[in-house]
Structure formats: C-alpha cells, structure tokens
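Changelog-adjacent note: as of this version, every example in the card shows the full chain rather than a window. The one below runs 172 residues end to end.
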Amino acid sequence: MSLEGKRIAIFLEQIYEDPEFWYPYYRFLEAGAEVTVIAPEVKVYQSKHGYPAKADLAAADAKAGDYDAVIIPGGYSPDHMRRSKAMVDLLQQAYDQGKIIASICHGPWMLASVGAVKGKKVTSFFSIKDDLVNAGADYVDREVVRDGNVITSRTPADLPAFCKEIIAALNG
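Full-length structure tokens:
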C-alpha cells in the first residue's frame, strides 16, 4: 500500500533498538511517505549496537500537526526520550490531535508519560507490562495491538505486523 502524501515522525534518542528504528524508517520511505527523524537535538545518536542515526529536527521545533503518525522505537531510548519535555510535549500534542501513535518494545513508556495507555488495550516488551498496567492499560501479549489511534508491538520479531498495522491505519 502506498503512503504517498503521508508525513511520519520517527522519534530518536540514544541506545535505540536498531531494527525498531531502521525497519520502519526504510519501510515507510519505500511506501512513499515523507519521514522525519525527531530527537531532543539535531545530532547523531548511537544505537544499542553502536549504529549511528542523525536527527533531522529538534522536538522543540516540530509541530504535531505536520505529521500523520508518530513512531516510537524501543531499546532504552524511550527512557531517555521521556526526560525531554519537548519530546513528551510533542507526543502529547500528537495524541491529543488524534494522530496515529505507534510504539514498540519499550516505546510504550512514552505513551504512559502522556496518558495514552489509560483505558487502552496495548502490548510491549514484557518487562514494562507492570508500568503499563499501573498507568491504566489493558495489557495483552500479541504481536500487534491497535486500539483507536494507538498501535503497539513487543519486539523486533513483530516489526512486519507492526508496520502493516501502521500502514493500514494511515490508509484507513
């Protein structure tokens, strides 16, 4: 399916999970989307395995209304993302505007920071299940879960289903 004319933000911070950033990045470019990498600062960030990725735009300079979807990769980067007020504020605005918000692995930590899991059915890497339940989520263990505008997945093995669900939601 084509994503021509769609604008997608992918969040970035240090210690990101390599495939959870790069797989969606290239998949959505391949489908014709305009993909912007957003981080606290415009600089190079290292992955869990030392692979560099450069941010295109600082979160403080981004506007949620400019994007159709926000993607939050996992690894340990979401723990660093939520320390940035600009990153949290941007995600809050996107969620409040009803944009597609998709996160994988530890990415739902960011969703919890903006109240986007409360009353929602979600999944994640198993180690943050308690955090999500305590934030009001209905936790399920599935490769991908969509509840309204929120899409979640567990691990890199779920990336094909995760990206398919995001594409379906954007074409919905």
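Structural remarks: DSSP finds six helices and eleven strands in the chain.
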